[in-house]
Amino acid sequence: MNFNQDDIRYMQYALQIAKIGQGESWPNPAVGCVIISNDKSTNNNPIIIGTGYTNRGGVPHAEIMAMNSAHENLDGATMYVTLEPCCHMGKSKPCTQEIIKNKIKRVVIAMVDPNPLVSGKGIDELTKNGIEVILGCCESEAKEQNLGFIYRVTKNMPKITVKLAVTNDNYICRKDDKRVKITSESVDKYIHLIRAKHDGLLIGSGTYKKDNPRLTVRLEGYNKKLHKFLLSSCGEIMEDSNLYIENHDNTLTLITGSDVKESILNALDNHGVGVLKVKKDLNTGRLDLLDAFENIAKIGINNLLIEPGAILFGSLIDNVLPDNIIVFKSHENLGKAGLEVAQINQLLNNENSEYEKNYEKFIFDSTMLHYKKIR
Questions:
Q1: 172-227 pLDDT, tens per residue?
Q2: Which of 268, 164, 284 has the alpha carbon at shortest distance from 276?
Q3: DSSP state, 286?
Q4: Of 374, 244, 255, which is closest to residue 304 (Cα–Cα)?
Q5: Closest CA relative to residue 24, chosen from 68, 71, 59
Q6: Most buried pick, 46, 73, 254, 292, via CB within 10 A?
């Protein structure tokens, strides 16, 4: 641990820059990079000469963007990067080769890349070429920032976050299944910001049929295209639904049973709808959620947001699948019209031994509660 306070400061800046790529960089992790010059400014502080983050689809990598943004010689410079630089040929050349070619003298790395193609090899290549490598600066922060990527490459699972909106008396919906609006417009915008930080968004067939959602990020200045997942055990999709009509960019994937007819799947494919076939739970006859998430991980999704209805939420909790649960609780009551969901009451009453409340805060006119799985 040969890093100092300046190193921590620049690495924290790199971690902030990495957030720009969140929700866009998959299947790559969200990585940030800062380069400082070997020369000193008049106040004897290093000069930042390059910054970068991993872009959409992983191209370019943060290190390449930072080096390309520098308008002066990189000879003798120090690089701060939140993840070990890659050393294998992917969509672009290995970052290690470009670092060596540009004669960067010192590389400070937050964490080792868990990907077996890189893990430790990038560091070895840099050190063998005479570059000083410092490892572990802000390591815990970097790992927390990229838990989704870590889970995917080590467990073949995305990081799963569930978002719920409940009334003050803990109801998510009505008994008569009529749609009920729980959160305000201001809270809705905050929820869209949460969406923007995820790679994919998943809903169940109940929410799909009742709400006819668009599953988009509707925030001014955001050009964000979420990958959308719809659970439908029989492969059913309505041609007049928003998801079907607005699938111009082929970002919709239907998750369905392995027994669905090929004619249905071919029709979906012709409209640009992707299909993931998964097993069915032998006890319930519903889609096997664990198999579904493993298949989602295989296509490169690191961070998955789920906006479930009552049935899907119950299944998720019963199988202890969410890593995080975010609850927006309004101050309105639904009363006798509300449908009671036992898993919601247990969670909010702190009676679920698998989850603990991490924090609670006010968001506009609602209370936001954050729960984490107890590992």
A1: 998 888 888 999 999 999 999 999 999 999 999 999 999 999 999 988 888 788 89
A2: 268
A3: S
A4: 255
A5: 59
A6: 254
End-to-end CA distance of the chain: 27
Question: What's at 1, amino acid-wise?
Answer: M
d(CA 268, CA 256): 12
Helices (H), 33-161: 62-69, 95-101, 121-128, 139-145, 147-155
63, 84, 98, 125: the active-site residue: 63
Q: In Å, how far from its chain's centre is CA 24? A: 9
pTM: 0.94
* 3-class DSSP assignment, residue 251: coil
Q: Which two tokens stand for residue 322?
A: 């969410």
Q: What is the distance between the alpha carbons of residues 199 and 365, in angstroms, rounded to a whole number?
A: 27
Helix (H) or strand (E) holding 161: strand 159-166
Transcribe 91-104 into DSSP letters. SS--HHHHHHHTT-
For this structure, is 63 an active site residue? yes
How many angstroms separate the CA atoms of 49 and 71, rounded? 7
